[in-house]
């Protein structure tokens, strides 16, 4: 794909396009997040990636039926040194969130916290090595009890003791599927 086309699609997805390295990182982020089919994650904006950009464009530049990659941006807005349009989210997480949405949030599921840069993760007292820092976790509005989240493909299902409702879903590979834990920090 030519540079003009690449920049158009990166901008449409709210991704960083300023330098060659930013474009490469953004293409990798898009390839990792895209869920309509599994794209090869190589940072090369080739024919399959162009096809994926065009497919997402038919659906409001989404990476899945209901989510845009920009919804997973770090909440710090670039305060801790990364570019404000940098984002990381793994397609496995997005696929789980689609199932969570179908079961618990039929009228829409907003991501309250997705990817976190290392600085923001420290600022919010997140655990070192948090699944948020590698795009494998999302915080969501509280709605339902933890047991109702089992069977959706999540590895970590975090709830707050104060209300007993799920506020965190992750696909961290170091956890077994459907691992329910109390998340009070």
UniProtKB/TrEMBL annotation:
The UniProt keyword set, sorted, is: Carboxypeptidase, Hydrolase, Protease
Q: Which SUPFAM superfamilies match?
A: Hedgehog/DD-peptidase (SSF55166)
Where in the numbering of this chain does the Peptidase M15A C-terminal domain appear? Answer: 65-142
Presence of keyword Endoplasmic reticulum: no
> Source organism's superkingdom?
Bacteria
Q: Does the keyword Hydrolase apply?
A: yes
**Signal peptide location in the record?**
none
Q: Name one Pfam family in it.
A: Peptidase_M15_3
Recorded GO molecular functions are: carboxypeptidase activity
Question: What is this protein identified as?
Answer: D-Ala-D-Ala carboxypeptidase family metallohydrolase
């Amino acid at each position: 794909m030519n540079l003009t086309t690449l920049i158009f699609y990166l901008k449409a997805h709210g991704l960083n396009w300023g330098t060659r390295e930013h474009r490469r990182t953004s293409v990798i982020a898009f390839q990792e997040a895209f869920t309509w089919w599994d794209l090869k994650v190589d940072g090369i904006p080739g024919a399959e990636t162009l096809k994926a950009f065009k497919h997402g464009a038919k659906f409001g530049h989404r990476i899945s039926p209901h989510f845009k990659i920009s919804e997973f941006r770090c909440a710090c807005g670039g305060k801790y040194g990364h570019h404000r349009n940098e984002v990381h989210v793994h397609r496995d997480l997005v696929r789980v969130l689609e199932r969570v949405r179908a079961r618990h949030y039929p009228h829409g599921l907003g991501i309250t916290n997705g990817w976190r840069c290392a600085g923001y993760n420290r600022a919010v007292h997140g655990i070192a090595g948090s699944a948020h820092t590698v795009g494998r976790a999302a915080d969501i509005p509280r709605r339902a009890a933890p047991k109702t989240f089992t069977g959706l493909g999540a590895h970590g299902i975090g709830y707050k003791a104060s209300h007993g409702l799920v506020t965190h879903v992750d696909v961290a590979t170091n956890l077994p599927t459907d691992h329910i834990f109390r998340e009070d920090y």
